[in-house]
TrEMBL record, chains A, B:
It is found in: Cell membrane; Membrane. NCBIfam families: mgtE. It is a multi-pass membrane protein. GO terms for cellular component: plasma membrane. Coiled coil: none annotated. InterPro entries: CBS_dom (IPR000644), CBS_dom_sf (IPR046342), Mg_transptr_MgtE_intracell_dom (IPR006668), MgtE_N_sf (IPR038076), MgtE_transporter (IPR006669), SLC41_membr_dom (IPR006667), SLC41_membr_dom_sf (IPR036739). The gene is mgtE. This is Magnesium transporter MgtE. Gene3D superfamilies: CBS-domain, MgtE N-terminal domain-like, SLC41 divalent cation transporters, integral membrane domain. The chain crosses the membrane at residues 286-307, 313-339, 360-382, 388-413, 425-452.
Amino acid sequence: MQKSLNRVQEAFLRLVHNRAYSHAYNALKQMHPADLAQLLPYLQEREQQWFVETLLKTRKLGGVISELDENKVLEFLELVPQEEFVKVLEEINADDAADLIAGLPEGQRQEIFERLSGSQKKAVGKLLGYAPDTAGGIMSPEFVSMEQTLTVGEAIDQLRAKASGEKEEIYNIYICDADDQLVGVVSFRDLVLSPPDKTLQDIMERNPVAVRPHANQELVADMIARYNLLSVPVIDENHRLIGRITVDDAIDVLKEEATEDIYHLGNLAQEDHISTPVWTSAKPRALWLLINLGTAVLAAATISLFSETISRFVILAALMPIVSGMGGNAGTQSLTVVVRGLALGEVDWSLALKVIWKELAVGLFNGVIIGAVIGVLTYLWYHNLTLAMVMVLAMVGNLIIAALAGAFIPLLLRKLRQDPALASSIFVTTATDVGGFLLFLGLSTIFIKLIIS
Amino acid sequence: MQKSLNRVQEAFLRLVHNRAYSHAYNALKQMHPADLAQLLPYLQEREQQWFVETLLKTRKLGGVISELDENKVLEFLELVPQEEFVKVLEEINADDAADLIAGLPEGQRQEIFERLSGSQKKAVGKLLGYAPDTAGGIMSPEFVSMEQTLTVGEAIDQLRAKASGEKEEIYNIYICDADDQLVGVVSFRDLVLSPPDKTLQDIMERNPVAVRPHANQELVADMIARYNLLSVPVIDENHRLIGRITVDDAIDVLKEEATEDIYHLGNLAQEDHISTPVWTSAKPRALWLLINLGTAVLAAATISLFSETISRFVILAALMPIVSGMGGNAGTQSLTVVVRGLALGEVDWSLALKVIWKELAVGLFNGVIIGAVIGVLTYLWYHNLTLAMVMVLAMVGNLIIAALAGAFIPLLLRKLRQDPALASSIFVTTATDVGGFLLFLGLSTIFIKLIIS
């Protein structure tokens, strides 16, 4: 469960905090870029300056920056002189460089891009042409491709020459025909296990799964996860190989998408992290809160319809949030199950009736349970049987509303090709707030004579 | 975004629905087990029977079952005769078989296990000894290990003999010394690129990262994701290799953990899916709702402290849920960011002050924004300046409470080695409900003379 820092990182931080910089320098040289990438927030301002300078000196900055999410790169960059940053961008993989440039504030983006030189500029330019959440936006344009007429022995010889210059891990060799069209794939395993005089054509897997550059990144990640792939080739409209997406890219996408779902359920924008500045976090949250405020005002208006009833029996004011609140909780439960089921591909619109029916049954069941408990409590508290019965009926009714709204709203949003997590929690709590107050105060108004007698 | 069914799956379903069973049979034979695994809920009862029988006939059932989450296997198993199921368990990988058996109802578990034969029984028995959420619980006991004194050429020869019988993908060769202790790892890439007369000792990566069988699965998945690994070896206390965990296992764990976090934030237990029976879903949800009911009663008790004030000015009853509700929304925002930050390893207790300070600033900022808006609205609605001022003060105060609770509670839970997502939303909404009612009704009571004059 302890996910934060490992022992190596903690030891390094102690050295820095104790100003044992030469020891820290040696420790840093041994550390994995992914471990170093996590440390910036744990350092004081002066230590951060030393840290970044040391990463530059030891030529580790590129590796570290490649490991960072876009939202955390900006913090690093404030500490790096622009010319050094450009140098780093030229050293790292083109796809990482493109991600970093895409994450820069608009003003700097063009400026930094223009300063790149030659081949890296060309590669990065191509990648920047794809939207960041597509296959093209996450693919690496670096891969090993060979012609199918080569023998296994020749392929291995070529590989020795090529692989030494490669920056990224290679998992397999893509086989292309004379027109550069993708026709097959050969894994290292097949290469090792095949006699050297066989041709690649003989051992390759034909018609491998491939994706187009504008395919949604989520779809690609899902494909890699579902079929247990190590990489997926990306091909253009002429079936020519233009890049590949590896399983570690897929993991990043899956994490990103999980964060997005969790954030949308919590009424948050995606660019909101612990390390983002106050203003960057506060602005989008304020927007969501304002939308929520609208629904809260709606609920308040519902209540004020019944001020006459409340003024005659003020205890209702204390009891009414119980009905609306429990509806909100139960609705969130249904919503969460359906949103997650949609994200994991367990359900779609064609199963909507089945899903709604099941949630309805759960809502009815739990409505009876919770209604019974709160009914007894209300009776014990106020010795008023009618009030207790109103409480039971309102609770059962609102938990049914909660189940229907929680199941139906995300399914409908998906059917309309919207993100089922986005804003659905607002719709659901609006339904349960307004529904809860209407039911409880409406029933109370009907039975008010019995209640106050 | 369309994650549910792909074209192959949809075409297959059409064939089945149209009772074109012989075409469907041929289509099924070509389909990937992962694609087939998803389809059960989309079939009618009679179709399901045909489906499972056909999977058995085509010997695809094992592959399909291996792709299923434990919570979905039971549905399948109801359709398979026990003796057939035992046969399937003997064909699939030992780790998948162990997962399936671990997911069975307690009564059947021992019975099915006893019916396994020989080597599979032994392998499964060992794996069942580890908790399901540990490295031991998810590892595969099937791997390729060789002695370091072999040459590359000899290794390739051995591999040809071994690999043909292997059921799972092999990504690398583990190198063990004479005492079976893990000393290195050789990737296929290194094997391909090294001259055949070199020894494995010369080319292996020494002291590879390894984990113990009782390590938490989340930690292992995190390690694989962080260092972009394809697999991690599992070693016992004597440093002997006992299994390996591959990147596709890590992806499953990451998905599972994301589901767990989302569920805990939505007050749900983990075994609750769209396909789980009503009763299995309803029971744990009812438990959570009962806990929530406790906090709702607490909030109601807070309100009833002020029934005197409310009876003198009944409009307060309509306005008070705005303050508590907005606090709940803002608190959920802070909570979500901090819980996700903890899950992604971006933060730990040592950064607590920094995090709380930032959330406090966001809370104050948004408190002023939302307070101003609702203040103006209240004034326009009721033409009561004191009431509007009370609303502003209560809103700012409650959004500060929301920020503090949302940031502090998950950090504290992590510090206490609890799951920061579990139950924290209940603590936060209790704080914002009680806090909101206390602030708004308390201030109203203090200024009641000014309000009703």
